[in-house]
Amino acid sequence: MSHHNVKSTFVLGGARSGKSRFAENLAQNSGLERHYIATGRAWDDEMRARIAQHKHDRGPLWTTHEEPLALADTLKRIDAPSRVVLVDCLTLWLTNLMMEETCDIKAESAALAALLPQLSASVILVSNEVGLGIVPENKMAREFRDHAGRLHQMIAAEVADVYFVAAGLPLKMKG
């Protein structure tokens, strides 16, 4: 299995920074068959409508997989050299994991990071940078920030390229 042209990319940014649009453009420009893993959960009608709108906006050239928890399994299942897989986003995935009482988040994070170099698809992962604000007041928010920080460092270590997006402008941090 040749890995020479496989590029994995990590796109970080704040909320409404333009990171998802930047990631979608990267996927489009790859020329590969586009797959989208949506980690968001439709808790209510507004969220369902938003998910449907996003799906419509991406258009028919994307195959969408909704997977709130088993991200590594889904990546393995749809892996193919002809594909680019956009994961949007790790922030919601972590949130979903935290809602599962029995989940070992450190292990899940490590497993995801370790999987990336083994995949033959080009993978683009999107996440919210949560470490730039003040220390959160509540325990869950602090735990989330700590999990996210660790996950981001693990992912950044395994991918070829890392971008930070602010105000729609990408800054290349690695690669």
UniProtKB/TrEMBL annotation:
* Keyword Transferase in record: yes
Q: Which family does it belong to?
A: Belongs to the CobU/CobP family.
- The residues the record assigns to binding GTP are 13-20, 38-40, 55-58, 66, 88
Keyword annotations for this protein, in alphabetical order, are: ATP-binding, Cobalamin biosynthesis, GTP-binding, Kinase, Nucleotide-binding, Nucleotidyltransferase, Transferase
Q: Does the keyword Kinase apply?
A: yes
Substrates-to-products reaction catalysed? adenosylcob(III)inamide phosphate + GTP + H(+) = adenosylcob(III)inamide-GDP + diphosphate; adenosylcob(III)inamide + ATP = adenosylcob(III)inamide phosphate + ADP + H(+); adenosylcob(III)inamide + GTP = adenosylcob(III)inamide phosphate + GDP + H(+)
InterPro entries given in the database record: CobU/CobP, P-loop_NTPase
Highest rank taxon of the organism: Bacteria
What this protein is called in its record is: Bifunctional adenosylcobalamin biosynthesis protein
Purpose of the protein: Catalyzes ATP-dependent phosphorylation of adenosylcobinamide and addition of GMP to adenosylcobinamide phosphate.
In which pathway is this protein known to take part? Cofactor biosynthesis; adenosylcobalamin biosynthesis; adenosylcobalamin from cob(II)yrinate a,c-diamide: step 5/7; Cofactor biosynthesis; adenosylcobalamin biosynthesis; adenosylcobalamin from cob(II)yrinate a,c-diamide: step 6/7
Active site at: H54 (gmp-histidine intermediate)
Q: Give the Gene Ontology MF terms in alphabetical order.
A: adenosylcobinamide kinase activity; ATP binding; cobinamide phosphate guanylyltransferase activity; GTP binding
In short, the EC number is: 2.7.1.156, 2.7.7.62
Its BP terms in the Gene Ontology are: cobalamin biosynthetic process
